[in-house]
Amino acid sequence: MVLMSLLFRFFILSILVNLGSIYGITVVTTSGKTFEKVTIEKDTDRELEIVDKNGIFIRIKKEKVLKLIPDSQGQAPELAVDESVPTGPVTSPAAVGSLPEHSLLLSQSVSNDGAFQGSDLFGERQARRKHKNYKDVYESYFLTSSIELLGLPKQFKLGMTIMNPMVDRTNTDSDLRLQSLPGGPDQTDIVNKSLSSGTLLYDPAQVRTRREKNGLPDYLFTRAMYDHETRLGTFSAGFLFINANDPIYVMRGYWVIGWKPPFLEWLNPQFSMNNKMLNDYGGIFQGTHNYRLSFSHEFFKGETFRITPSLVIGYADVNDNIDRKKGVSDISPRLQFDYSKFFFAMNMMYRETPSLVDNASYTPSDGVYADSNQNDGRVTDPSKVFGYANQYILNQISTNAPNDFVKRELTQHYQQQHIIHSIFFFNLGYTMKI
Length: 434
Fold this sequence. Notes:
Elements: H1 2-22, E1 25-29, E2 34-43, E3 47-51, E4 57-61, E5 65-70, E6 104-111, E7 115-116, E8 119-120, H2 123-130, E9 142-149, E10 156-165, E11 172-173, H3 188-197, E12 211-212, E13 219-230, E14 233-244, E15 251-260, E16 270-276, E17 289-296, E18 305-318, E19 327-339, E20 342-350, E21 378-380, H4 388-400, H5 404-415, E22 416-418, E23 422-433
Antiparallel strand pairs: 1-2, 1-5, 2-3, 3-4, 6-9, 6-23, 7-8, 9-10, 10-13, 11-12, 13-14, 14-15, 15-16, 16-17, 17-18, 18-19, 19-20, 20-23, 21-22
């Protein structure tokens, strides 16, 4: 009898699955949550994968499914036995090609810092701006707004993310340096020589303190992807463009290729290649590659409270066209807690190979000497460059050093610090459909 009951339940479930692929069903979970007018995309021994009318995929554990109810099709038939029994209002079926219920998936969050492929987006720039040493936790708060377009065919993904700094947006002065243009070389030494010699060696109308464009920039990430499902997994291809409201960064463009294998579904493994294709910085980063491997698992899927740990590992095949360094660019774990529409996430970016960012392109140097060793994992400490105390120490080194070699070594030892390996930041926000 038990075997017959199981076979009967399996037979009914198969019929509902087949009906769901054609018409649509309602899924009722053990927690009382219902998913109406959905179709079944995949049915395994452990999970049920459904797609709602907006094309969003939802996975539910089998033990969480209470029952499946096929949606009625067309108008309810008339009751021939007793016409006095009310049948309720008849709902007209949706017209073919009608607009989806929701158009956008909006997500907004506040964070104290951001990262991308081993590069810090805000914190290290803020440290240079405020002449503070590099550290592992920053207070460069910004608002992130992400929009995903719903209602598209499920193969297409289109969205954008904009990051708007909430602090240090405006430009500041040049720290009492005398310049002929914003961001130009310091000409204080020429002014001092003119005063000591009595000969004017500069143009007073041009050389003065100037405000530099060193405010934290806005970032805009735009992405368009196409997914193709096969027996070997889901293959993806598309573009990622990064615009920055910055006097140096123009645009970063990536040709993205991804693969999601059909195995280890519990870990949700995904592999992607970000191939740099646009020409900025005079082409220094054009043609660079970063390979990304990610894992994640959502606990309590479909429930009000959910926990999602994830891990992303990035490997830079070529970091830029000049240094051409290789290595693990970042190891980025994340732990996210969701309650209804709200979420809180803790993130870390660990730079396994700090020499990838040990150059003036990633961490510009304002020290006395340029960073001559780009493999020692050391950069100029912004807090050891300007100010009277630093100038006094540098003058003492210059005066008492027996030769130029010792002077250079002592100066760089004083002005440099190790590149920060681990950077921590958080996200607090919400997600909703519009």
